Amino acid sequence: MAKNYYITTPIYYPSAKPHMGHAYSSIVADFFARFKSIDGFKVYFLTGTDEHGLKIQRSAEKNNKDPKVFCDEISKTFKDLTKILNLSNTDFIRTTEERHITSVQNLWNILKKNKQIYLSKYSGWYSVSDEAFYNDDEIEEKEGLKVSKSSGSSVEWVEEESFFFKLSKWEKSLLEFYENNKDFIRPKSRRNEVISFVKRGLKDLSVSRKSFSWGIKVPNDDNHVVYVWLDALTNYLSSLNYPDENNKLYKSFWPADLHIIGKDILRFHAVYWPAFLLAANITPPKKVYGHGWILSGDEKMSKSKGNILDPIEIIKVYGLDPLRYYLLKEVSFGNDGSISETKLESCINSDLANNFGNLCQRVISFAEKNCSSLIPDHSFNDDDLKILNSLSNVDKIRTMIDNQDINQYMNFIIDRLFASNKYFNDQEPWKRKNDKLRLSTIVYTALELIRKISILLYPVMPQTILKVFRAFNIDEKQINISSLKNNDFFKEKDKINKLDILFKKIEND
Ligand code: MSP
Question: What's the CA-to-centroid distance between 365 and ligand 1, angstroms?
Fold first, then answer.
C-alpha cells in the first residue's frame, strides 16, 4: 500500500507581485513533493494565500478596494504562479474560503472548551507588516521609529480588549515535545534558537483583535476577529477537511510530514502552532524546516524594502527549469542565498548544457548512428557495473531527502554526471566498431546512466526531464526511484526517439 506524505508551503500574503523569495519556498517544497511522489508515496502538497488581518485590510484600503475583491484579484496572481513554477500542488487554499472559516472557528471552540482561552486586555507592540506582537525587549529605536529587532519592521502601540491563549502554560510541554521529537525543527541551528526562546519564558498570546474587522469572527463574540496567525496556521488542517476528523483526507495525511517555511516565520510554526495543537488535543506536525532568505544585496528581498526580483521576468529570459536548478543547487539550503544572473548563466552553460545536455545529446546521437536508434544488446563488464551501481544506492538517496539535504543531493548528481561523461569518453565506443557487443554495451550503459540521472533530476527540472524520457518512450507515471536499482531497465530493440533541445547555451560577448 502506498505510504502518504503531506507537505506544505506557507500560505502567502497576497501582495501585488510575488517575488523570488516566494518562488524559492514553493520550488523547494515542490522538489520534495515530486521526489516523494516518484518514490511511491501518495503526496498531498498544499499551498495557498493568507488573506486576513490588518496588513491586507490596509493594502485594500490603499487601493480603494473592498478587502474581499482585493484578495480575489491578488490571490489569483499566486494561483497563476503555481502554474508558472510548474508546482505539483494538490490543493490551493484561501483563508477566505468557507471551509477554512469553519475549521478555524471549530479549533477556537475546542480551545475555549479546553479552557485555553480567556478574555483580558492587550497593551503592547504590534507589527502590521509581520502581523506579530512584540515584547519591549524585542523592540529598538531606529531613526526615531520603533522597530522590531528581528525583522526591522515598524511597530505600533496597541491597547485593546483581547482574547488570550494560555501559551505560558505550554512552556514545559513544548520543551518536552522538542526533546522527544528531535527532528521537529530543522535545521539544527533553528531548533536551538527556538529552544532558547521558549526557555526564556513564554507569555500568554493575544489571539484576537477588536480594532478592525477583516478577519474570521470569534465564535459568540462578533466584536473580535481571530488573530491572523491562529487563522493562517489552521489552513494546514482546513485543507484536509478538518474538523471532520473521520474523513479520509484528514485520516490519511494528518499529522503533516513537512512544513517548509522561511526562517522569519519560525516562531509561529515551531512555538505557537504546536502549542495550539497540543492544547486542542491534535497531534503536531512531524517537521518544520526553516530555510534562509533570498537576499538582494545583503538584505532580505521583500516588497516593503522595494528590492524584489521578479521570478516571472527571470523565467521569461532563462526558462523555468534552469531557475529551479539554480535555486536548488546554488542556495545552501537552510542558509541565506542570493541570485545573480552571472551565476545563473554559468549554471546553464556548464552544468546544464555542457554536462547534462551534452551527455544526453552525444549518447543518443551516437546510438542513432551506430545502433539504428534502437536499444542495443549488452553484456556488462566490471567497469560498466561499477558506474551503474554508483547510482543504485536508493537508501542513501532517500536519507538525503529525509534529512532535507538538498545540496548533498545536487552534488551527488553533478558528481555522477561528470563520472558518466568521463565513462563515455574513456570507453571510446567510436573505436569499438569491430567489437559490436562491446560498442553496444557501452551505449546501453550510458543510456542507463542517463535514465538514472534523469530520475534524480526529475524533481529539480520536471519539464526538461520529461523531454529526455520522451526519447525513451517513458511517461511520467513510470518514473520511479526504486528503478535506480535496476541496471537493465531498457529492453533490447526498443525505439529511441530524437531528443528535443534541452538547454540553450547563453552566448555573451
Ligand atoms: N502568510 C505568512 C505565512 C503563513 S503560513 C501559515 C507569510 N507570508 S509571506 O508571503 O510573507 O511569506 C511566505 C513565505 O515566503 C515565508 O516562508 C517567507 O519566509 C518566504 N519569504 C518571503 N521573503 C523571502 C525571501 N526574501 N527569501 C526566502 N523566502 C522568503 O509569511
Answer: 45
For 106: left if phi > 0, alpha if psi spans -120 to 50, otherwise beta; the answer is alpha
Distance between CA atoms of residues 160 and 227, nearest Å: 13
Q: Around 240, how many Cα atoms within 13 Å sit in the side-chain half-sphere?
A: 24
Cβ contacts of 113 within 8 Å, gap of 6 or more: none
Q: Under DSSP, is residue 213 helix (H, G, I), strand (E, B) or coil?
A: coil
Q: CB 478: neighbour CB atoms within 10 A?
A: 13
In the reported structure, the alpha carbon of residue 355 is separated from the centroid of ligand 1 by a whole-number distance in angstroms of 34
* Tens digit of each residue's pLDDT (9 = 90 or more) over 298-349: 677 676 666 667 899 999 999 999 999 999 999 999 999 988 888 899 999 9
Domains in the chain with CATH codes: 340-485 (1.10.730.10)
Nearest CA to ligand 1 atom 21: 21
φ and ψ of 160, to 5 deg: -160, 160
Is there a contact between 459 and 31 (Cβ–Cβ < 8 Å)? yes
pLDDT at 447: 98
223/220 Cα distance (integer angstroms): 9
Identify whether the C-beta of residue 271 lies closer than 8 Å to the C-beta of residue 230. Answer: no
Report the pocket of ligand 1 as residue ranges, CB < 6 Å: 10-13, 21-22, 24-25, 50, 232-233, 235, 261-262, 264-265, 293-294, 300-302
**In the numeric block, which cell numbers belong to residue 228?**
491572523
* Cα–ligand 1 centroid distance for 242 (angstroms): 24
* 242-248: Cβ within 8 A, 24+ apart: 242/103, 242/106, 242/107, 243/102, 243/103, 243/106, 243/107
Give the residue ranges of the chain where pLDDT is below 50: none
* CB neighbours of residue 384 within 10 Å: 22
Sheet of strand 156-165: strand arrangement: 132-134, 117-127, 156-165, 205-206
Q: Which residues of 160-172 are buried (b: 16+ CB within 10 A; e: fewer)?
A: eebbbbbbeebbe
**In which residue are the cell numbers 526538461 written?**
464
With 0.85 as the threshold, say if the pTM is over it. Answer: yes
Report the pLDDT value the prediction gives residue 303, as an integer from 0 to 100.
65
Q: Tell me, what's the pLDDT at 507?
A: 84
Whether 17 and 308 have beta carbons less than 8 Å apart is answered as yes
Q: Is 244 helix (H, G, I), strand (E, B) or coil?
A: coil
Q: How far is CA 63 from CA 305, 362, 498, in A?
A: 19, 55, 52
147 and 141 Cβ atoms separated by less than 8 Å: yes
Task: Give me the torsion for CA of 264, 265, 271, 274, rounded to 10°.
Answer: -150
The closest of 366, 321, 371, 370 to 344, measured between CA atoms, is 321
Which cell is 208 given?
Answer: 484576537
> What average pLDDT does the chain have?
95
Substitution candidate for ligand 1 out of 265, 267, 276, 294 with most atoms within 8 A of CB: 265
Residue 124 has φ and ψ, to the nearest 5°, of: 170, -170
